[in-house]
Specification:
Helix content: 40-55%
Shape: globular
Radius of gyration: 19 Å
CATH architecture of one domain: 3-Layer(aba) Sandwich
Strand content: 5-15%
Strand order of the largest sheet: 3-2-1-4
Number of helices: 12
CATH superfamily of one domain: HUPs
Length: 257
């Protein structure tokens, strides 16, 4: 992968946020602050684009969430001096699953993600603010997101950044090091990590995705560079299976009006 010019990237993303928020006629932004690196980076970009006073960061822990996640989210709030609040989602989620005792962890995780996004959109209406997305390019193309959950937003400033780009830009902007150094996790259940769940590392995924998406290389060409064929095919399969998540809902067009 080629390294980004971090100064230029920062300026570009700040301008993107400033211009597209202004174009809506709104001045404020709301984000879900998870304690992870992606939402933290977006908070720093928003601070530079619209000012700390115009940001509302909402922390939404569940009873099994790692306490470290909330601690790290608070570090970002304190460093940026942004507005924030904590909304527990345990009662909301448990009320639904009380009648679904056989629900899998995947179903519960998806419900949590959509519950959180529902809260963000309600607060956006309350505050007259835009919901800002926090999904990076790696997650988007691997399908590692919940449709109408964490993938939902009005605009997304980091959707064209690979995970390794996110780490690099976060270091450049001074995001607290504990967030950069810890293992990425959606924190949907106890002990969950992204890489363990996917069965691959973000570094591996980024190297292959970059060759597929930016360099337009074939599977054979990538394998010839020394990458494991099973890993390449795993990533290609994930891209195909999650294509529907990257599109607007399909609408049948009537040709016989």
């Amino acid at each position: 992968m080629k390294n980004l010019d971090l100064k230029v990237t920062h300026e570009s993303l700040v301008n993107f946020l400033r211009e597209n928020i202004k174009a809506t006629g709104l001045k404020k932004a709301v984000i879900g602050l998870s304690g992870g690196i992606d939402s933290a980076l977006v908070a720093y970009l928003l601070r530079d684009a619209i000012g700390a006073e115009n940001i509302l960061a909402i922390m939404m822990p569940y009873k099994t969430s790692n306490p470290e996640s909330l601690l790290h989210a608070k570090m970002v709030v304190e460093d940026l001096k942004i507005n924030s609040k904590i909304i527990e989602i345990t009662d909301m989620v448990d009320a639904y699953f009380k009648n679904e005792p056989d629900a899998t962890m995947l179903r519960k995780g998806n419900k949590m993600a959509r519950e959180r996004m529902s809260i963000l959109y309600d607060n956006s209406a309350k505050e007259g603010a835009l919901v800002i997305g926090t999904s990076n390019k790696t997650e988007i193309f691997l399908g590692y997101s919940t449709q109408f959950g964490d993938s939902a937003c009005a605009i997304n400033p980091i959707g064209d950044l690979y995970k390794t780009n996110v780490w690099d830009l976060s270091r450049y902007l001074g995001v607290p090091s504990p967030l950069i150094e810890k293992k990425p996790s959606a924190d949907l259940w106890e002990g969950q990590t992204d890489e363990q769940e996917m069965g691959l590392t973000y570094k591996e995924a980024d190297e292959i995705l970059y060759r597929l998406l930016e360099e337009k290389k074939s599977i054979d060409e990538i394998e010839s560079e020394g990458f494991d064929l099973n890993l390449i095919e795993n990533i290609v399969s994930r891209m195909k299976r999650s294509e529907y998540k990257r599109r607007m809902p399909l609408i049948a067009e009537l040709k016989n009006r």
